[in-house]
Amino acid sequence: MPVKKLKQKAISSPLVTHIYTADPSAHVFQEQIYIYSSHDIDSTIPEDNLGSQFAMQDYHVLSMETPGATVIDHGIALSLQDIPWAKKQLWAPDATEKEGLYYLFFPAKDALDIFRIGVAVSCSPAGPFKAHAQPITGSFSVDPAVFKDRDGVYYLYFGGIWGGQLQHWRTGQFVADKEGAFAQLPADNEPALCPKVAKLSNDLLSFAESPRDLLITNENGQPLLEADKDRRFFEAGWMHYYGGRYYFSYSTGETHYICYAIGDSPYGPFTYAGRILEPVIGWTTHHSICSFQDRWYLFYHDSSLSNGITHLRTIKLTELHHDKNGLIKTISPYSLNG
Length: 338
Ligand code: FUB
Hints:
By secondary structure, the chain is an all-beta fold. 0% of the residues lie in helices and 39% in strands. The site of beta-L-arabinofuranose (FUB) has 14 residues, from β2 and β15.
């Protein structure tokens, strides 16, 4: 009998193909979906564990009227050269709206090669955005995600280990590695590093409090350990609210999952609840979750458009479902086809 060859078929297509895009943060503004994403470029910088090859230099904003509709690229929304404090590496951004103004939060390395988080403002969700002269005071690490709670309070979630530098901040100050890039990561039998959360000031331009640890525990209330690579936080935090509970989702990094944990407050603690997305083509996995007209969508990326090149990614979307208990059904980004 002939052996039938099984092929993987992607469940979703790239949203745009004229540029490489990654780290999609999706929001509904003015009744449309706006996506704030990284703009990947072929930097020719060799790949390393610190992500030096992710040398992005600007942001584009994308929008669509509905999921599946034509995607509009609004062009350059913010360039590295227009951010007074930033030297390189415009990584995963996010945005929010308050009183008719739009705020873009973004990480970049400063003159000392330390990741900070900046904010830029526009009167349009599509930009262009004008960056503040300094990063947010007291900010560090990468992957900002902004969440507006039902009481109108805004929170910024952030952090990422390895190249995202979170491990350098364990003392509250930046401590450079002396013994190798990841010497300050916890030992396998220690609690994993926590992502951070801070309430934002009324003008959304600064922290209203010192960043706090966002604790993710197992089903017994114990912090996830560093050895628990399939479940512990690595980067790419995101918050959504569903059915009266707060859902913090994130990437597990080198095990390539998008997982989530559920809590009763925007500060947590959060209890690990499962996997949202199985591994994608490429090394990184990064997502956002957004509701539109009573349905929920997962925005994510993979490296399919570049045939697997780590730092040349493409954003996609697919519908996401919560079951009757509020648990999220795991999504496989590829299906097996005969
Ligand atoms: O795009 C650069 C980095 O790759 C992001 O900040 C991480 O979340 C990962 O997707």
